[in-house]
Design a protein that fits this description.
132 residues, alpha+beta
C-alpha cells in the first residue's frame, strides 16, 4: 500500500543532555504521522470519537537504528499494514534530513466502542475512505 509522508523538526525539549531524542518521544511522532495520514484521507480521530469509536494503541514496536538529534528534520513514512478489521496496523520508517534510516516501527490499534469499552469492527466509512 502507498505510504504517507510527515515531517517533524526535533525540538530541544525532546532531547536529552547529549542532544539525542529521548526514546519515549517516538510514540508521539508516530501518533502525529498516523493522525495526519488519516486526516489526509478524510478520516478524523475527533469525529470518530464523537461517533462512538476510539482507537487505543494495543501494541507499539520500535527498532532504533540510529539516533535522531536536536534540530533534525525527520521524515516519517507511514504505511497501512493490511486491511483493517477489529484492528488497524501501521508500519513506519523514520529518516533524517540526510535520508538515513533512523527507526522502524509498527503499531496496532483497536477499534473500540466508547460506551461499552469493547472491540468493534472497523467502521464501513473508514474502509471506504481507505478504498478497501
Amino acid at each position: 500500500m502507498k505510504s504517507y509522508t510527515t515531517y517533524v523538526k526535533v525540538r530541544y525539549a525532546e532531547t536529552d543532555q547529549m542532544g539525542v531524542v529521548y526514546h519515549g518521544n517516538y510514540a508521539q511522532y508516530l501518533e502525529l504521522a498516523r493522525i495526519e495520514w488519516l486526516g489526509d484521507l478524510g478520516i478524523s480521530y475527533k469525529e470518530m470519537e464523537e461517533n462512538g469509536i476510539m482507537l487505543p494503541v494495543y501494541e507499539l514496536n520500535l527498532k532504533y537504528l540510529k539516533s535522531a538529534k536536536f534540530d533534525d528534520v525527520l521524515r516519517i513514512e507511514t504505511r497501512l499494514s493490511g486491511r483493517p478489521n477489529v484492528k488497524i496496523e501501521f508500519d513506519y520508517q523514520i529518516f533524517n534530513q540526510d535520508d538515513e534510516l533512523l527507526t522502524e516501527a509498527h503499531t496496532v490499534l483497536v477499534f473500540m466502542d466508547v460506551e461499552r469499552k469493547r472491540p468493534v469492527k472497523c467502521p464501513e466509512y473508514v474502509l471506504e475512505k481507505l478504498n478497501l
